[in-house]
């Protein structure tokens, strides 16, 4: 799929993604912003920024926020949230900024296993001494609670079985670090952040997952009713009376520095 087609899936439910799914990942955003020391006056870029909550959090810390995503419908929400940021529609494999423009670049589940070129691009736009923070699912996610949501989508979608395996390879031990080294960056030790995605009830949870890109691909193949039924069935035992649906997530991340 070309980057120009990404909006068909990611943009389809943009307002649901921005209000129901994206806010639940704030502990990941917070961990990455702290680990990369984004703060007052940092020239900061978020790659595959989606609807831009991470950008907004960076801007509130005083950073000069820049963002890029391939979905213009997600970007409309990002621009509304953080009007002072420089937010551009484009491809992470060809960033529309000059060499050495940024102190920090991040990507939260935006750069995946097949995206080596995007890491080269991130390295190109960093200043010497600047760093890239890359977060992704750890390789063990298949047996985890978050893995259940992906399993619900994958088991009914041929496209997702193959594609999600390639994407997930960034989580293999040493793989993200290797991608950074190939791009001339020096990765520090991998870090982890664990948290629960919180859903008020099963309806809330299903709505959140139906807004994600992978669900859209499955919906094209099998129809919305079947995808919804599959997600509901797989997540039903995560619902607790009085608590709602809580799905444990383990995110791993690497911070890699561009040599001075
Ligand atoms: C899992 S979402 C993560 C979004 C955001 N980082 C977050 O944490 O909420 C993946 C994002 O990658 C974007 N994307 C996919 N391919 C892209 C490409 N080639 N260039 C730029 N963005 C892309 C999608 O539009 C989507 O917003």
Explain how this protein is built:
The protein has 260 residues and is of the alpha/beta class. The protein has a single domain (3-257), classed as Vaccinia Virus protein VP39 (Rossmann fold), CATH 3.40.50. Helix content is 43%, strand content 23%. It is built from 12 helices and 9 strands. Strands 1, 2, 3, 4, 5, 6, 7, 8 and 9 form a 9-stranded mixed sheet that branches. Strand 4 (102-108), helix 6 (116-125) and strand 5 (126-137) form a beta-alpha-beta unit. It is globular, with a radius of gyration of 18 Å. It binds S-adenosylmethionine. S-adenosylmethionine (SAM) is lined by residues 3, 6, 10, 22, 25, 48-50, 68-71, 74, 91-93, 108-110. Residues 3, 6, 10, 22, 25, 48-50, 68-71, 74, 91-93, 108-110 line the site of S-adenosylmethionine.
Key structural traits:
binds S-adenosylmethionine, 9 strands, 12 helices, nine-stranded mixed beta sheet, alpha/beta, Rossmann fold, globular
Can you count the helices?
Answer: 12
What CATH architecture do you see?
3-Layer(aba) Sandwich
Per DSSP E runs of 2 or more residues, the count of β-strands stands at 9
Q: Which homologous superfamily in CATH is the superfamily?
A: Vaccinia Virus protein VP39
What value does the average pLDDT take?
Answer: 93
CATH class categorisation = Alpha Beta
Instruction: Please report which band the strand proportion falls in: under 5%, 5-15%, 15-25%, 25-35%, 35-45% or over 45%.
Output: 15-25%
Q: Taking Cα atoms only, what radius of gyration do you get, to the nearest Å?
A: 18 Å
Characterize the biggest β-sheet.
Answer: 9 strands, mixed
Per CATH, what is the topology?
Answer: Rossmann fold
- Overall number of domains: 1
* Helix-strand sequence: HHHEHEHEEHEHHHEEHHHEE
Share in helix: 40-55%
Going by helix content, strand content and strand pairing, the class is: alpha/beta
List the ligand species. Answer: S-adenosylmethionine
């Amino acid at each position: 799929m070309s980057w120009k087609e990404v909006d068909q899936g990611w943009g389809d439910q943009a307002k649901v993604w921005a209000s129901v799914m994206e806010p639940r990942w704030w502990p990941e955003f917070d961990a990455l912003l702290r680990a990369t020391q984004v703060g007052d006056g940092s020239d900061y870029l978020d790659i595959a920024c989606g609807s831009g909550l991470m950008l907004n959090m960076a801007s509130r810390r005083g950073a000069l926020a820049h963002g890029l995503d391939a979905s213009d419908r997600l970007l409309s929400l990002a621009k509304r949230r953080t009007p002072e940021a420089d937010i551009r529609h484009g491809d992470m494999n060809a960033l529309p900024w000059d060499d050495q423009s940024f102190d920090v670049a991040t990507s939260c589940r935006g750069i995946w296993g097949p995206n080596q070129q995007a890491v080269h691009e991130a390295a190109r736009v960093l200043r010497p001494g600047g760093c890239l923070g890359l977060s992704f699912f750890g390789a063990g996610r298949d047996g985890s609670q978050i893995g259940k949501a992906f399993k619900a989508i994958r088991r009914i979608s041929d496209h997702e079985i193959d594609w999600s395996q390639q994407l997930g390879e960034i989580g293999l031990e040493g793989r993200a670090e290797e991608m950074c080294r190939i791009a001339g960056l020096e990765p520090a030790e991998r870090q982890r952040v664990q948290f629960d995605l919180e859903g008020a009830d099963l309806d809330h949870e299903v709505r959140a997952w139906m807004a994600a890109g992978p669900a859209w691909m499955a919906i094209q193949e099998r129809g919305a009713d079947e995808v919804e039924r599959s997600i509901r069935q797989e997540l039903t035992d995560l619902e607790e009376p009085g608590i709602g649906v809580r799905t444990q997530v383990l995110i791993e991340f690497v911070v890699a520095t561009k040599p001075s």
